[in-house]
Design goal:
single chain, 95 residues, mainly alpha, Multidrug-efflux Transporter Regulator, Chain: A, Domain 2, 2 domains, three-stranded antiparallel beta sheet, rod-shaped
Amino acid sequence: MSIQEIIKSGANISITVSALDLKEFALSLISEHEEEKKSNIPAPETYLTQDEVAAKLQVDKSTLWRWDKSGYLNKVRVGGKVRYRLSDVTKLMEG
């Protein structure tokens, strides 16, 4: 029975642990923590220009402007330039 299994069982016991077992337990905790850390990192967002979005959705730029005003597809200003999140465009295309 491993240390992790004993801990998960909730048993109230005293144990003697070898240095090797303690090292193995510590390494397993570290690897679990690193996996959790990797899974919590969001993917970097990709931004598209008005022309790219208009071509992708097959609409005019004036339609994008109207959608932004109504909240249907919001624009983002990056350095004074209008951009759209690829994730938002993809959601819109999927319905």
